[in-house]
Design a protein that fits this description.
This protein is 35% helix and 21% strand. With 421 residues, the protein is of the alpha+beta class. The protein folds into 2 domains: 248 residues, Bira Bifunctional Protein, Domain 2 (BirA Bifunctional Protein, domain 2, 2-Layer Sandwich); 87 residues, 3-Layer(aba) Sandwich (Rossmann fold). Bound molecules: adenosine monophosphate (AMP).
Length: 421
């Protein structure tokens, strides 16, 4: 019979990896609290038109990567390939515009893109996403970037590289696009097929083509920063001054454009070393025109998304210690199977007191139970021996020091009681 496997580009997060996820999730949760972001949960699928309009039909995401299906009512739906369009949809639909600005929201969950899978690139992956909506001030761009900084410093990452750029606004970008097209048109025969196709529709994308033939042309291309209007140039300069004043290191990368249509002004990415070609752990930017594209009033906004799988890969690659999870405090064993009813009661009482406790099943020898306690990483084993039977007492064995003492159940439960959150 056919053996089932997880679909291509998806992965199971096995128990051994969970401690890294837990670490990342705890850091994200406290980050959102410290920076004053409120949680917003969104549907996993939305109407296809939302992404076509919001993300843009000329983008890889919309052209090639969406999981789109027609539902039984005949409507076209798409599994979300990113958060921002959905966040702005929810912001407009739920009247959040009447709240004090900026409205600061965070979301977390699975994202779906039909991409070519490789290490660090999946078809289902998980994003943490934050958005600050309704404010133009470059101090907000700084705040969003400093949230990314704090995320990575709280995770204790080393060797990170912050890349920033400004790609202008509807006032200055068209002029820049013309210059860009002219540059690439004059080298059209040297471009890869993808770039030739994108040249007229989305020339910005040619700047981040990874093909060796296209890279030198992208390096010599006109730079967005040289074509910014006064407002965009001032915005970018102010942001850089904030970054400098807080000694946050960054590189201005004129080839950083990011793959979505909605970005304006500031764009940024954070790259981690050593996790392979897919090294962007976080990316974001400003999208001052998005709310209007989605039928709302002009509403500026800025945000970023970080990929959790890549954060977990970085934690593992950089061998950053994280707290162990799932280790029981107490393994309850019995020397003779006739003590089992007492062992069942004791394990229940320990758990009711909030103590992670594991019970030895199956009437095996004490030696086998101690081996299991060791394999499960139990800190202590409570043994109901011949002597303790019927006396509400146990021998407590410290599994690292291999020393033992007799305790009453009451003392044992008091000693290991854990307050619950
Ligand atoms: P993007 O929306 O493409 O800028 O993605 C934001 C972040 O999500 C990236 O910096 C990655 O960390 C992560 N990410 C994007 N695409 C994938 C993917 N296919 N697999 C895993 N993580 C991804």
């Amino acid at each position: 019979m056919k053996k089932f496997q997880s679909p291509k580009g998806t992965r199971d997060v096995l128990p051994a990896e969970q401690k890294y996820w837990r670490q990342v999730e705890q850091v994200l949760d406290s980050l959102a609290r410290i920076f004053g972001y409120e949680r917003l949960d969104l549907p996993v699928f939305e109407s296809t038109a939302l992404f076509q309009r919001g993300v843009g039909t000329g983008t890889d995401i919309v052209e090639k990567e969406m999981y789109t299906f027609t539902d039984k009512g005949g409507d076209s739906m798409t599994l979300r390939p990113e958060f921002t369009a959905g966040v702005i949809r929810a912001y407009l639909e739920n009247g959040m515009a009447s709240r004090p600005k900026p409205v600061k929201l965070w979301s977390y969950g699975p994202i779906f893109r039909y991409e070519r899978p490789q290490a660090g690139r999946y078809r289902q992956f998980t994003q943490f996403n934050i958005e600050a909506i309704g404010e133009m001030d470059p101090a907000l761009d700084f705040e969003i970037m400093s949230a990314a900084w704090q995320l990575f410093s709280d995770l204790k990452f080393r060797n990170l590289c912050f890349q920033i750029n400004s790609i202008g606004c509807p006032a200055c970008r068209p002029g820049y696009m013309e210059q860009l097209k002219a540059h690439f048109r004059s080298h059209e025969k040297d471009l890869c097929g993808d770039c030739r196709n994108r040249l007229e529709k989305n020339p910005l994308r040619l700047l981040d083509c990874k093909k060796e033939t296209c890279k030198p042309l992208a390096d010599r291309a006109p730079r967005a920063a040289d074509f910014l209007c006064k407002e965009c140039a001032d915005h970018f300069e102010t942001l850089k001054r904030y970054l400098d004043s807080m000694a946050m290191p960054y590189t201005v990368n004129p080839r950083l454009v990011r793959g979505l249509d909605y970005y304006t002004k500031t764009v940024f990415e954070v790259w981690a070393e050593g996790i392979g070609a897919q090294n962007a752990v976080c990316g974001g930017g400003r999208y001052d025109g998005l709310a209007e594209i989605l039928g709302g009033p002009p509403t500026p906004g800025i945000g970023f998304a970080a990929g959790i799988e890549r954060l977990v890969m970085t934690l593992m690659h950089q061998q950053i210690p994280v707290p162990e999870t799932g280790r029981p405090d107490v393994y309850v064993a019995c020397q003779d199977p006739k003590a089992m009813p007492e062992a069942v009661r004791l394990a229940t009482l320990l758990r009711q007191a909030g103590t992670p406790a594991v019970l030895g099943f199956g009437g095996r020898s004490l030696k086998a139970q101690l081996r299991e306690a060791d394999n499960r990483g139990a800190r202590f084993t409570a043994i109901i021996g011949e002597e303790e039977l019927g006396k509400q007492a146990v021998q407590v064995r410290d599994m690292t020091k291999a020393v033992q003492e007799q305790l009453s159940w009451t003392d044992l439960i008091t000693r290991f009681r854990r307050p619950r959150d």
